[in-house]
Amino acid sequence: MSSNYYATGDRIVDKVHEPFDPSGQFQLHTDQYTIVVLTTEKPPSRLSKFLHLPSSRNKDKAKDGDPASASPSGAMKLSGPSDLEGLKQKTVKLQAGQFPFDSRCVHLTTMRTEANKYWGSDMECLRGTCYLAERGASGEGSWTCSREGCESHTYPREYIQESEDGKACFGRKGERIVCLKIE
Fold this sequence. Notes:
Blueprint: E1 5-8, E2 11-14, E3 20-21, E4 25-26, E5 32-39, H1 46-51, H2 56-64, H3 67-70, E6 88-95, H4 106-109, E7 124-125, E8 131-134, E9 169-170, E10 176-179
Parallel strand pairs: 5-7, 5-8
Antiparallel strand pairs: 1-2, 3-4, 5-6, 8-10, 9-10
Region (Disordered): 47-82
């Protein structure tokens, strides 16, 4: 066997063609990660914005501080960690090749401990507070990271984990996910 191969357990990994995980292990690009992602509500379509006029009920909600109704476009505006409470969660499965190491939370980049009930394995984060699915938006407060195809972010940059080259999101178009900084 040449030095271009590395054995892990019962499989042999081609070091030249497979990604290297900075935690010190080679992994196949097909290895699967499972994460729980917070999701925001889908903004209303342009047609629905045109057909529905603002009602007095929506004005009352905006006064009470409901972030979804405070925006004139109906898109949810999140200004910090306190706005994440009550958001829906969904489970997302990603292959290692689609999941940049810089976008992984601390739970996936450090060794698992038995004391933490949220970790099922080294390849899943079931906490539900580490990732946010953002739907691109424009306007005041939005910003774009350096990832190719970024559709912009509305969640404040100071709460999002970025790579050294300024990339913050990953995933498919319309389903971009960001990793939140954990304090």
